[in-house]
Amino acid sequence: MAEPADKKRGATPEKPKPAGYFEGETMTRRTVFALAGQAAGGVAVAVVALPVVGFAVAPIFDRPEETWEGVGSPDDFADDTYRQAVITIVDGVGDSGKTTVYIRRGSPTLDEDPNEFIAISTRCAHLGCPVRFVQAAGNFICPCHGGVYDFEGLVIGGPPVRPLDRFQTRVNGDTVEVGPRYSVTNDLEPVRARDPGEFTGGIWEYLYPPRPTTPPPPS
Amino acid sequence: MPKLPSALRKPSKPGERGNGARRDGGGANGVEAEPHPVREKTKEGAIDVVGWVDQRTGASPFLTGLLLRKVPKGTNWFYTLGSATLFAFVVQALTGVFLAFYYVPSATEAYDSISHLTNDVFLGEFVRGLHKWGATMMIILIFLHMGRTFFFGAYKYPRELNWVIGVVLLILTLVMGLTGYLLPFDNRSYWATIVAMNITASGPVVGPYLADFLRAGSEFTATTLPRFYAVHMLLVPGLIIALIGAHLYLVVKLGTTAPPWLRAEAKPKSSREEKVG
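Above: the input entities. Below: the structure tokens describing the complete assembly.
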């Protein structure tokens, strides 16, 4: 049995050099091939995984085409009450793609242009239940959790975090048309459409950043 | 009669000698009953098959370790809650596979296909009922199982990782509940999903994008239902199965804990302790 001390002193015969060894190499051939093999495997995984992930998240960046839908002639609408209309906001999902909109003419008493039309969305700003305009009270009332909005859609009670959303409007010939949705701040400043439950204005414009799926608000 | 591979034989009880295979040393009273020829042949055949598979897989030590492992004193009915949850998952997986034979994940056809499979298909109501009520059962059982683990202190070292895996499984089970709720596509499931997406979207910074991802857009679109369906029947079940594997591996590897009301039995003091104490 060899003395263990001999080993420490390097008295054992030198190990044979691996194949392909040359003076001054920093990496053995085995290491190079192992790394190359792993790199090739990584590339193969990425080639499959990245497109698949992109495929799944693509709708985040996809803005659907704006649709405008006629809801009646300008003479149909008064400035002191709302008229209902049903518009289709999503195609191909049957009735669940439809929504009710409350439309009126701009009122001079509210500092609005009488030639513009106001289209209020019925989607409650709390959790998205459908609100209803109650003529007697002049308010929008949500059946789910008791959210109340005034005539202009500003919150006057309950849990909603911002005024009711609106839809862009335009007059095309003698038809009033309703277009894409936008949200408003508490001062009725238009901002990009938000989901219910999200605040608008101030710091919330940064905490709920604009999404590529929504069109920019009307200026 | 060929012998079972030793690893497959029942381990002997403490105090009993040998490997349990010693019992074939002749009847206790020396009179061996005449073996029934057909029964003997059947037994032989079965043992031959088991032995053949075992010789080629070497699975028997693994299986004996899994099935005949020791459990601590005091193990009681509360310890079956995990298996009960697993059983509920298996029921969900099986009924889910067969519900997929009839279900159509399209916003315009989903409701009709559900009412067809419920009302027209033979036993459809039963299979759908199993899936529906089984989902509730699984949620209840998983929470009871979690409560058992918590109150018995079974999450402590060295089982913390299994607790973490269990929590992920709990969340995935709730995701199954959420995504499955939409699939019948009646008014209730539609509005429940709308509300769930709006709650998701109200999370700061990432919330709006996450909701857009789940809905495939800023509104509930024709792509939303197939998405939920794919998540419900492919993505999350795959994750759950993988994590259940890890969960069970750790249970078998680490063993289970004794209930907290059992105090550790006083061991006879070792000679060293005696000297010091």
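Note for the figure: The interface with chain B takes residues 56-57, 59-60, 62, 64, 89-94, 96-97, 127-129, 193-198, 207-209, 211, 213-214 of chain A (CB under 8 Å).
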